[in-house]
């Protein structure tokens, strides 16, 4: 499992990694898109079209911190939040956990491989070739 991604909560879990609820995902998207630590106020301002109360955003970030999805540091009197892992690492872990739900990982992988576009298949082939060249299983 990817460090910092274990957790539970209202949104539930797929095995080891927490699935995010709609508002949690919106907050995480802000943090992932910005790429720099943000305060509650900065996240709330970015989500202003949703008309969320400051305290709602603060509660979501606090819960995400408790679940290991974000890390926080003091920034003066406020907390500054950043993702504990990249969006790609989170999605990859979701995919691995979903694969673990299958009674036949091989069949699930074949089904997945057949469902991707030609470009995505090329990306997978290149990644597999790179892993093979590095001597990883």
The major β-sheet equals:
3 strands, antiparallel
What fraction of residues sit in β-strands? 5-15%
Helix-strand topology string: EEHEHHEEHHH
- In the CATH hierarchy, the architecture of the largest domain is Orthogonal Bundle
State the domain count: 2
Globally, the shape reads elongated
CATH superfamily of the largest domain: Winged helix-like DNA-binding domain superfamily/Winged helix DNA-binding domain
Q: Biggest sheet, strands in spatial order?
A: 3-5-4
Radius of gyration of CA atoms, rounded to a whole number: 18 Å
Average residue pLDDT? 87
Give the proportion of residues in helices: 40-55%
Low-confidence stretches: 6-15
CATH class of the largest domain: Mainly Alpha
Provide the structure class. Answer: alpha+beta
Number of helices: 6
CATH topology of the largest domain: Arc Repressor Mutant, subunit A
- How many individual β-strands? 5
Descriptive overview:
- With 137 residues, the chain is of the alpha+beta class.
- It has 2 domains: 71 residues, Winged helix-like DNA-binding domain superfamily/Winged helix DNA-binding domain (Arc Repressor Mutant, subunit A, Orthogonal Bundle), CATH 1.10.10; 47 residues.
- The chain is built from 6 helices and 5 strands.
- Strands 3-5-4 form a 3-stranded antiparallel β-sheet.
- Helix 2 crosses helix 3.
- It is elongated and about 50 Å long.
Compose a concise summary of this entry:
The protein is an alpha+beta fold. It contains six helices and five strands.
């Amino acid at each position: 499992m990817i460090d910092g991604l274990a957790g539970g909560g209202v949104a539930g879990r797929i095995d080891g990694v927490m699935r995010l609820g709609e508002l949690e995902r919106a907050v995480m998207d802000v943090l992932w898109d910005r790429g720099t630590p943000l305060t509650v106020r900065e996240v709330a301002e970015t989500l202003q079209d949703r008309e969320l109360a400051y305290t709602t955003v603060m509660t979501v970030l606090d819960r995400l911190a408790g679940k290991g999805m974000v890390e926080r540091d003091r920034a003066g009197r406020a907390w500054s939040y950043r993702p504990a892992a990249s969006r790609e690492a989170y999605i990859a872990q979701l995919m691995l956990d979903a694969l673990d739900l299958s009674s036949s990982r091989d069949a699930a992988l074949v089904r997945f491989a057949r469902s991707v576009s030609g470009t995505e298949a090329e990306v997978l082939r290149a990644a597999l070739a790179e892993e093979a060249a590095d001597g990883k299983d």
